[in-house]
Amino acid sequence: MANLEDAAHFLRGADKILILSHRSPDGDTLGCASALSRALIALGKSVMFRCADPVPPKFTYLFEGIEYGEFEPEHIVTVDVADKTLLGSLEPYGDKTDFAIDHHASCRPFAKETWVEGTAGAACELIARLIPALGAEITPKIADCLYTGISTDTGCFRYPNASANTYRIAADLLEHGANAAEINRLMFDTKSRAAVALLKRLYGNMEFHCDGKCAVFCLTSDVIAETGASEDDLDGVSAMVRQVEGVLLGFTLREREGGVWKVSMRATNPADASVVCAKFGGGGHKGAAGCSLTGGLEDVKARVVAACGEAIKALENK
């Protein structure tokens, strides 16, 4: 397994670099990609960026002013990608990836070299250490990118994955000019009317199972269409399902094409979301994990609820 020094050595000697983010990109994968892009370009490297899905509008500021090149890449780097299948339509690049930088303990290595630190609250924590090791400066714009990734992946520092080191790195980013107050406002305190309409529907139809210790949101295509919710409006919904008192495991089922349901699970200590999702071929962190299942809504929901029930019962029997 590679480390910080290996990553810095590789990137210092590389050029014509393609950076890949995971599909359905969030603030962490995009914060990593934009921050690393800015640093490498400042060092005179030619850089490209690709993602299978469009960058959500709320995150476009991360890439403002970046001048990407067009070339045949000589080196490929992934950021915050725990499994090559998470590259979506770009999965063929997985077997060609030279270096993967990730923070998921459940990471399934696919690159020639992989640097994983499962205790990091966000992959942006690794990039925040990597950029100085490359000999590049953390500018205010880079600090904004990194702070965005850290704040979104830790739920504005409310989740258990926010360690003392996470706070130290965030403080350093503020000293380098990160506009934390504005980023927090945009990420956590701003909702469109469509998002409010969606939340009204979800909370109105919220389900409880396992004596109230498991909660479920169902995001069907019809609900999304009727409320006019965009991808931006869906961001953060998964975290809300565990906010009800007494809930240990909460998950959101989101309908995809072809009868596929994306499961986004959140857990309250001592429950472990990654253990439950692993039963369905998924993974993630103790507090947040995901997987995908195929079938009808009621069947898929029953299967995931049953797995949550088993996990909760196991906790009660300890």
Automatic annotation (TrEMBL):
It comes from the Bacteria. This is DHH family phosphoesterase. GO terms for molecular function: nucleic acid binding. InterPro entries: DDH_dom, DHH_sf, DHHA1_dom, Oligoribo/pAp-PDE_c-di-AMP_PDE. Gene3D superfamilies: 3.10.310.30, inorganic pyrophosphatase (n-terminal core). Residues 223-310 form the DHHA1 domain. Residues 16-150 form the DDH domain. SUPFAM superfamilies: DHH phosphoesterases (SSF64182).
